[in-house]
From TrEMBL:
The keyword Transferase does not apply. Pathway: Nitrogen metabolism; (S)-allantoin degradation; (S)-ureidoglycolate from allantoate (aminidohydrolase route): step 1/1. The keyword Hydrolase applies. HAMAP family: Allantoicase. PANTHER family: ALLANTOICASE, INACTIVE ALLANTOICASE-RELATED. It catalyses: allantoate + H2O = (S)-ureidoglycolate + urea. It comes from the Bacteria. The gene is alc. Keywords: Hydrolase, Purine metabolism. GO terms for biological process: allantoin catabolic process; purine nucleobase metabolic process. This is Probable allantoicase.
Amino acid sequence: MNGERAWVTRPDLASRRVGGSVLWANDETFAERENLITPAPAGFRPATFGHKGQVYDGWETRRRREPGDDEVVVRLGLPGVISGVVVDTAFFTGNYPPECTVSALAAEGYPSPAELLAADWEVVVPRSPLGGDTRNPFDVVSPRRFTHVRLTIHPDGGVARLRVHGTPVADPALLDLGSLDLAALAHGGSVVACSNMFYSTPANLLAPGNAQVMGEGWETARRRDGANDWVVVALAAAGVLRLAELDTTHFKGNAPGWATLSGCDSTTADPDDPTAWFPLLERTRLQPDTVHRFPIAQRRQTTHVRMDIHPDGGMARLRLHGAMTDAGRDDFLRRFAEVSGN
């Protein structure tokens, strides 16, 4: 993949890790469709044969002997605005599709595969050539919020992974805006800065569900300079925080010793100004492999939260529970309307 796109650092909206699902494929003769959204990179073991031939870690269809194309439909685990798509043909060399098209759809509720196939899809990646055994990136320029994507391969072959990078946009009708995790990726929270991400991305802190292994959290390198590591989170909307959850699950010999939380209201101050930040949680000792919950006494409107860990280490999840302010609620509803066409 020549010249990595900037958008690959954004969340993979289709990943199984965030609740994505492969709903339908017209064919999966050689390799199962579900492999497309596996979070881990594709692997390959040569000369590993099953009843249908070489076992591939991807989605592979039969060789077509009649006109037509093969398709697969994925429900995004995190509906949102798509910035780019990666069609990864890793290890598919003589059996990759020469071309592909990607379409997207915004659907309400929980439609069946038949209902989805009959819907009006928007092409977000026009028919484009693919290379074999490589990551094929495609920019997406549509400003709309989508819930599903459809990958069409022309005419057949194998794709290892489908990555759909973008910005999650939650449906306000499905949330209680007076009590929610304002940092959650699923609600629109995002990491905007951090000191170090040597072992894993800090975006993992905001991911849905519990971390299953250490690698699903955020871990920094060992510090030797006397300073400390930190991360800044932009909340889904301006709000007042009530409870913070600092989760060091799976981090046993490498959990931070202490942590602090600071807040900033970007509607009245510049987050780049060190004096704009106010304390939310004083320096507090942490334990390894533990879910810590702390009440937040500060009742000020907050748009950004900075977590400092001392001196370094790993954190599985960061949850910041609270309520949107009136201004935050209005802004949240406006942003949803802009990308949903409502």
